[in-house]
Amino acid sequence: MDIAAAALAGDRRALSRLLSGVENDTVVGRAALAQLFPQTGKAHVVGITGAPGAGKSTLVNQLAREIRERGQKLAIVAVDPTSPYSGGALLGDRLRMRDLSTDTGVFMRSMASRGHAGGIARATRDVVSVLDAVGYPLILVETVGAGQSQVEVARVAHTVVLVEAPGMGDDIQALKAGLMEIADIIVVNKADKPEARQTVRALQSVRPGMRSEGHHRVSVGKEKQVAAEVAGWEVPILQTSALENRGLEELLAALEAHRDFLKESGQWRARLQENARAEVESWLQRHLLALLADEVGEASLTAVVDTVRRRENNPASAAQELLAAILAAAGGAR
Amino acid sequence: MDIAAAALAGDRRALSRLLSGVENDTVVGRAALAQLFPQTGKAHVVGITGAPGAGKSTLVNQLAREIRERGQKLAIVAVDPTSPYSGGALLGDRLRMRDLSTDTGVFMRSMASRGHAGGIARATRDVVSVLDAVGYPLILVETVGAGQSQVEVARVAHTVVLVEAPGMGDDIQALKAGLMEIADIIVVNKADKPEARQTVRALQSVRPGMRSEGHHRVSVGKEKQVAAEVAGWEVPILQTSALENRGLEELLAALEAHRDFLKESGQWRARLQENARAEVESWLQRHLLALLADEVGEASLTAVVDTVRRRENNPASAAQELLAAILAAAGGAR
Predict the structure, then answer these.
(1) Nearest to A84 among B146, B209, B315 (CB)
(2) Which residues pair with B138 in a beta bridge?
(3) A184 min Cα distance to partner chain B (Å)
(4) What does the pLDDT look like over B226-280, one tens digit per residue?
(5) Is this prediction's ipTM beyond 0.85?
(6) Which of A166, A194, B21, B150 could staple B29 via S-S, CB 3.0–4.6 A?
(7) Which of B82, B83, B211, B283 to mutate to test the interface with A (most CBs of A within 10 A)?
(8) Chain B residue whose CA is closest to A34
(9) Of B92, B193, B177, which is closest to residue A53 (Cα–Cα)?
């Protein structure tokens, strides 16, 4: 049995090895991805993002526990735990996670944010694809730090949860406008703190600009009813507290409501189509570059790039010449 | 005389029209870019980034005035002025800029952050290339808002200046770690405010992790001496104040020191080579997609993407088949 089949059959060690191959874009990893691709496209991928110190890892841990208590399987992908900026949180998280680690219904994977062929976005997408294929219906992708990784996670995830800590939403609301634009759900964590209410108000004051097309309210009552209008999605601002063990049900309901919204509005399907196209185009590029290396060679490519650097040729013409050379060589080889 | 030649000859209206063509990736724009490419690669491109409210536009305005007083030409590219998050700042900026707008030694260009074929990064890079080609030795690229646009500006710019306002560097220092990673120079603006010192201290406490390889101090004394060791670059934290008209000389000295550092360390040249390669690869992709549209057609491409969306084929194989079809068609046409 090959590694992909073993992972599909539930072998966690095979899955871990397979994920390493996929992360590092090895030949085995690529082949397994192709083999597993038919099984993908089912999981709900949720990005959990926000500043270090907002309590993301604790929240993810609690969320995992709550989901497991409901008997559902899930996978957790933690991107960038090695960042110097995440500081000492990692060891603590690992310790807190330990009681989950013997539970076969949860699969955890940590990924470094750097050093991946094709970038962290490619590596995360492929790791998520494998976890999706082997049958995890919910995949939480946790990212640390501001900037690009948070924007990239938005492209991998169906639903992006932005986690805030009290006191952080005030004078920095403007700063984070860029991050709030990508949020589908906002969580004010550590809601037991007295500053939480002010943070909620500050966030509410920024929210209207985020989603202008229509409304889609998440109302979680005693019966956990979720009213979903398909017209648009109004970003809910929820409050959670690990100390008071509060807000998890509402957050899970909001996740489900957003998934339902995506499916009912046709966005889930449109996204599958978009992703398929982007993947095909990305592979076209990779195949072409491989062909370039085979048919033209690195030395000739460098020589062409040198003429561009010296401004003796422009990039568009240089690329046209390279493409003609590839076509001639590949055509001649047939 | 064509539009590129007119722009090269100093015709500002031709330059404006040309930039629109380049921004919108028109046929004329592409042709002009290719024509102007030999003249590019000389300008020092400086990204000015930071949260709304940090006073970036005022700083850019003052910087421009200072540079003009020294008799040097410069261009300013303001990305994303239409963002709802930049609020009322724009009109004020425009008014403040008015006395510069009659000065032919300054060229200003505003760009929307959305709706560009190939993305805002592509559009910004191409606009900067044109301004470089027509002879602006210094190009300031101002971006608003957190997130992707700030990371992308880092790829366009040689030198990234992160502008902070007092009181913003405190509890959010962790949040902005991702942004600080891309900063070459940090400016605490509105340094006349009493909180400025604390912000400087907070930033200094985060700084050491940013650049670990060696040291390169900017020391601006009475004679504006700049000591440059080539080993590494230590991110300077400067203070500026529009109210007190303070810190501009130091900032200009730091910009020059960073440019010198890039040239002396070989990074300037390495970057030209990297950029040339990235441009050639990007054009290869564009040419290939054009060939795909011509030889395979949108309908067939959509059909192939549909098989991928339905998981009947995987992206790698689908791309391989499309590439084979392109090669066969292009080969047959020869």
Answers:
(1) B209
(2) B44
(3) 16
(4) 333 345 899 999 999 988 889 999 999 999 999 999 999 999 998 888 888 888 9
(5) no
(6) B21
(7) B283
(8) B314
(9) B177
